[in-house]
Amino acid sequence: MPQQRRAQVTRRAIVIAAAEEFDRVGFDATPLSAILRRSGVTKGAFYFHFPSKDAVAAALVRFQAQVWAKIWQRWTSRGLDPLSTAVELVDEVVRILEHDVVVRAGARLAMRDQDTVARWEQLLTGLLRSSAENGLLRPEVDPVAATRVLYATLVGVRVLSASRAIGAAQQTGEIWRLILGGIATADWLRNNPSVPAAAPRPS
Amino acid sequence: MPQQRRAQVTRRAIVIAAAEEFDRVGFDATPLSAILRRSGVTKGAFYFHFPSKDAVAAALVRFQAQVWAKIWQRWTSRGLDPLSTAVELVDEVVRILEHDVVVRAGARLAMRDQDTVARWEQLLTGLLRSSAENGLLRPEVDPVAATRVLYATLVGVRVLSASRAIGAAQQTGEIWRLILGGIATADWLRNNPSVPAAAPRPS
User: Fold this and answer.
1) Full pLDDT tens readout for chain B, 203 residues
2) Is there a domain that residue B140 lies in?
3) Which residue in the set B152, B182, B202 is minimally distant from A157, CB to CB?
4) What is d(CA B110, CA B68) in angstroms, rounded to the nearest whole number?
5) A chain contacts of residue B202, beta-carbon cutoff 8 Å
6) Whether residue B110 sits in one domain with residue B66
7) Residue A34: which domain range?
8) CATH number (domain holding residue A146)
9) Domain HTH tetR-type, which positions (chains A, B) (predicted)?
10) Residue to substitute from A108, A160, A176, A179, interface B, most B β-carbons within 10 A
């Protein structure tokens, strides 16, 4: 294996092992030795790539930010209405958090920063505000309040995910069914039959 | 001050100081010295009342369990319909968690036990199941799924409470408005004008 390629493999092994340990017991409870053991990397090799455990955490945070930026870019440039954009975006974020331990560990680290938490909520608020302006929400719905509830629910599902038998993706379906059923216009629900909320509701 | 009364005052000072510190930085990050400093109690006096920091935590957990048992007893014996019972019960729990640091610290400790988390959800599920059986929920609503969403939202609001400008009680109002609006029958909403969700909704 050429040297540069080998270095990449080692770096990747460190990042994945750190993510798995942070995901399992949290950043604070993970000693460097656990990362070394899980990655099979020597201390010397570790320090060649990262000055500290904090530096691995910072790399995880940067990586997840890149993943989200790409997903945001993809869904907001597809020409969907803002409410559908919010639904698809949240569904993809939830799926990735469920299946990708590296992104999940990075996201957990990033969410320790209140500004990151607030920024996600602002992005969603923007989509729901725009949904209201485009007449996709019932007139009595306050998009800011609705986003607060939606966002709290998504955070709660993640917190509870360890103790619940059903997966986050299924729970997100339930959330949308309930919340879209309460905020979207009958027109929007009729026009979006693929959305779980679009089950017929007696009036 | 008679000796027994003085002992009670000291014990109470320890419990309150511990609750305030646990609430501020968490149980793990609170050294015994911080509890002594905040309570103004000597180490000797502390150990007269509690064998360890863990024992104070256990006392806080027992205390919050007693508070919830009383509240549960009060609301379920009032003859309200099960959906109104759920609304009133949750509102009181949220208010107490917001204003009483001793109960809040105890609840936070108790929620580290997955069984406690699951038990709260079971209690709420029971009320919503019974609401469905009594025809208070729209026929297409799955009470178990609706409780999962509701409970996740309540947990999320607590997790986010530090970073949000509005109080938990106001947010609970928003949650009920949105969720009851999505699950309760039009009849129930009409008959419960004091519930925030009962704002008129265009059909």
Assistant:
1) 678 888 899 999 999 999 999 999 999 999 999 999 999 999 999 999 999 999 999 999 999 999 999 999 999 999 999 999 999 999 999 999 989 999 999 999 998 888 888 888 999 999 999 999 999 999 989 999 999 999 999 888 888 876 777 777 788 888 888 888 889 999 999 998 766 543 444 43
2) yes
3) B152
4) 12
5) 138-140
6) yes
7) 1-50
8) 1.10.357.10
9) 8-68
10) A160
As a whole number of angstroms, the longest Cα–Cα distance in chain B is: 67
Chain B from 109 to 168: CB within 8 A of any A CB = 114, 117-118, 138-140, 142, 145-146, 148-149, 151-157, 159-160, 162-164, 166
Domain boundary (A50, A71, A90) is at A50
Kindly give the residue spans of alpha helices, DSSP state H, lying in chain A: 3-25, 32-39, 43-49, 53-76, 82-99, 101-110, 114-133, 143-160, 168-183, 186-191
**Touching B: A residues 169-198, CB under 8 Å:** 171, 174-175, 177-179, 181-183
Q: Look at residue A6 and tell me if it is in a domain.
A: yes
- Beta-bridge partners for A184: A137
Q: Which of A149, A155, A159 to mutate against chain B (most B CBs within 10 Å)?
A: A149
Give the type of residue at A129: R
Same domain? For B104 and B162 the reply is yes
Are B159 and B144 part of one and the same domain? yes
| Number of independent structural domains in chain B | 2
CA distance A12 to A27: 18
- Kindly state whether residue A203 falls inside one of the protein's structural domains: no
Q: List Cβ neighbours of A20 (8 Å cut-off, separation of 6 or more).
A: A38, A101, A105
Q: Both A58 and A106 in a single domain? A: yes
DSSP helix/strand/coil, B29: coil
Q: What is the ipTM of this complex?
A: 0.78
Look up residue B141 and give its DSSP letter: -
Can you read off the two tokens belonging to residue A197?
């909320």
**A203 pLDDT band (50/70/90 cuts)?**
very low
User: B100 and B21: one domain?
Assistant: no
Note whether B165 and B119 are same-domain residues: yes
B42 and B58 co-located in one domain: no
Contact residues on chain A for B152, CB-CB shorter than 8 A: 153, 156-157, 159-160, 171, 175
Query: Which residues of B are less than 8 Å from A174 in CB distance?
Result: 142, 145-146, 148-149
Q: Tell which of A28, A140, A147, A153 to mutate to test the B interface (max B CBs under 10 Å).
A: A153
A9: CATH = 1.10.10
Contact A178 B179 (CB under 8 A): yes
| B203 domain residue, yes or no | no
